[in-house]
Amino acid sequence: MGAVRQVGLVILGISFFTSIALFGHVPRLRSTPIGWVNRFMWSIFPRWLFYIDRRFTGGYIGPLISGVGNYLMNEKHPLIMAFYLTLVSGGLYMFVKDGWQYLSPVHRIFVPIVGTLPYITMYQAANSDPGFVTLENHERALRAYPYDHVNFRPGVICRTCHLRKPARSKHCSICKHCIAKHDHHCVWINNCVGQLNIRHFLCFLGATNVFLTYGVYLTFDILQNVFMLRALMPSNTPISSLPWSIYMHLLGIIIVEEIYIGAVFLLASLTGILSYAFTIYHLYLIWAGTTTNETIKWSDWQDDIKNGDILIAESDENSPAEDDEYDEDEICRHWPKRTTQLFYRQDPANVTELPRGFLWRRVESLREMDNVYDLGWSKNFKDVFWPQEL
Q1: Based on the domain organization, do 101 and 242 belong to the same domain?
Q2: Nearest Cα to 87, choosing from 181, 220, 212?
Q3: Cα–Cα distance between 342 and 319 in angstroms, integer?
Q4: 147 in Cβ contact with 154 (< 8 Å)
Q5: Is the CB of residue 169 less than 8 Å from the CB of residue 133?
Q6: What distance, in Å, lies between the first and last C-alpha atoms of the chain?
Q7: What residues make up the domain containing 312?
Q8: So which residues are the catalytic ones?
């Protein structure tokens, strides 16, 4: 059982660091072990290294570490893509080497088909345009979504691109562009996820889920119905008659004996849980009419609401008070949802005079704030899978 333990620890380690990469940035996980480890890995631990370097080498190693860290964090590189493809290719090799002979003719047809899906969808997602905002499509990008006057306000100029930032956009320091409806920069595809390619990103996640699910099914079937029955079970003894403890013990022995098939089963099982969780999270974002980037912004509002800093009022107009240099409604007439809410940040310990003409009250919950980008789940999904072209 020592071999099972070693293989399990390696796979658990891979799964753990994969979970940090997938979920470490999620606002709701800031106060969880995943959030703590994420901060330790990217903030606290590097500071410790620099302190030790200054103390014992006079800062000799620091610039080298900083250069490597800057490349890994702030430049486009294929290292994480290579890691993903290594896991997929290695898993396929181990499965085919020891498991192909036990497959039925039907599965021998489907394995090559399912096995190519991660490669095809990754290529599509990695090489797709996420929605780069350029001089040529800038006006169309401005017309895609209205400003909500909460997380996105008109008239803001990108300090790098020197273009007026469209609503829901964000400048990516790695891709060196403003991205329309920016969700996040995904290291797994070495590309941003935005307005034009989030559908390809979701197809990549879906293909990974299918690949892992099929792998778990096939490896478990081989481990149980081939090796366990052949090597360990008395003849004509149904597996269902075994006590759970004995069944798990026998399964562990089989995983040790058939290390390739067992390793693929464990790896696909554990990483499959993470892949499904990440997919469900992004489907939830679509259902809620938001993005990863906007979720971070809403999380900041949530903190201010808890501190009692946010006041709300209703305006008499069909949209918030205009604070831009142009008529917003002329730019984005097609959007069906507007808000009449006005918000004001005020520190309770430093009360200032509020704008007159409105009845102000303190916001008690984030649910009181309108999200103009949430049009209902069906229209939200349509906006993702059939986006406006730029």
Answers
A1: yes
A2: 212
A3: 9
A4: yes
A5: yes
A6: 57
A7: 292-385
A8: 186
Q: At what angle do helices 259-288 and 377-385 cross, to 10 degrees?
A: 110
Residues 364 and 328 in one domain: yes
How does pLDDT run along the chain (390 residues), one tens digit per residue?
A: 555 566 667 767 777 777 776 666 666 666 777 777 777 877 787 788 888 878 788 777 778 777 777 777 778 999 989 999 999 999 999 999 999 999 999 999 999 999 999 999 999 999 999 999 999 999 999 999 999 999 999 999 999 999 999 999 999 999 999 999 999 999 999 999 999 999 999 999 999 999 999 999 999 999 887 766 665 555 566 666 677 777 777 777 788 778 899 989 989 998 898 899 999 999 999 999 999 999 999 999 999 999 999 999 988 754 444 444 445 545 677 898 988 899 988 776 676 677 888 899 999 999 999 999 999 999 999 999 999 999
From the centroid of its chain, how far is CA 357?
A: 43
Judge contact between 200 and 128, C-beta under 8 A: yes
Select from 54, 73, 92 the last residue of a domain: 73
Does residue 287 sit within a domain? no
Q: Please tell me whether residue 345 adopts helix, strand or coil conformation.
A: strand
Report the distance separating Cα 154 and Cα 363, nearest Å. Answer: 24
Tokens representing 160 are 């790098």
CA 316, 317, 320, 322 torsion-angle sign: negative
pTM of the model: 0.86
